[in-house]
Amino acid sequence: LIALIVVVALCIFFFSIRISEIEVTGDVTMFNEGEIIGAAEISEDDSLFLHSSGKIERTLKKNLPLCENIEVKKSLNGRVSIAVSFKKLDYCCKIDGVYYVIDDELRVLDYSDANDRYSAYGATYVKLPETREPTLGEILVFYDTVEETDTEGETLYEVREERFYDYATEFLSSLKDSGFRSDTDTVTLKQKFDVTLIYAEKFEVRFGNCDNLDVKFRMLFEIMQEGSMQYAVKVHVDLSDPSKVIARADESIDFDEYYE
Fold it and tell me: How far apart are CA 193 and CA 240, in angstroms?
């Protein structure tokens, strides 16, 4: 009986402890302390022991998929310490007026009404074919891979297999591994056979399809190394046929058409 009373008393004691202070350390530049605490779904005066360290970490990971490493520590005086670091931003896109951070697998990692938040951290802007409404933490679904019918059961458009759009992830993955990603301003993937990127605010690089990407990136590297286009203001590069690479100065290029 005494042991039971002691256990009950301890339970009452522990669950009566309230969160008195929340400290956030680590990378608090892209997301401030308030946003991280909000994503953790905790607040001062909450029960300390109803929010386990594991639960806080899982909640943060769910609400902020950009989180890479999370460490949560709690103390009996009611203090909660959250140390967090975030993944490097690679790509972002715009869907229905909202900007989304995506990885090379097209997984949605974050969203914002302003692109500046992501471009300031080096994210490359990607123009994609039409997609369905994005879901945080999930891979984008292209619009015409889902069948829709009218009242008579007739399909409203040609339905494509999901693998039709494999070229998008293939290109983004190759670009990331190529060493060109960080200085790439924007990538246009709207057409499977007309992939184009803008590099260093100077080069319009046409890849055509996504065949032989390793060869095409190697040819692009050789063009950069060769240096004959060094003094040109704008340069058009055509890598669609690696055996007939074209690189020429072209002042008529309008880079604005690649942005939104």
Answer: 9
C-alpha–C-alpha distance, residues 94 and 115, integer Å: 8
H/E element holding 199? strand 195-199
What's the CA gap between 104 and 139, in Å, rounded?
A: 10
Cα–Cα distance for residue pair 224/235, rounded to 1 Å: 11
Q: Which residue has the tokens 């880079």?
A: 255
**Six token digits for residue 164:** 């039709």
For tokens 């301003």, the residue is 185
Q: Are the CB atoms for 80 and 73 separated by under 8 Å? A: yes
Rg (CA), the chain: 25
Instruction: Mark residue 31 as left, alpha or beta (left: phi above 0; alpha: psi -120 to 50; beta: remaining).
Output: beta
Contact yes or no for 139/105 (Cβ under 8 A): yes
Minimal CA–CA distance to 109: which of 89, 129, 124? 89
The CA–CA distances, whole Å, from 51 to 20, 72, 147 equal: 13, 11, 43
Torsion region of 245: left, alpha or beta (phi above 0 gives left; psi -120 to 50 gives alpha) = beta
* DSSP one-letter code for 131: B
pLDDT in tens, the chain (260 residues): 777 766 666 666 555 678 888 899 988 888 889 999 999 998 887 877 777 888 999 999 999 999 989 999 988 788 889 999 998 899 999 999 999 999 999 999 999 887 677 888 889 999 999 999 999 999 999 999 998 887 777 788 888 999 999 999 999 999 999 999 999 999 999 999 999 999 999 999 999 999 999 999 999 999 988 888 888 999 999 999 988 999 999 999 998 888 76
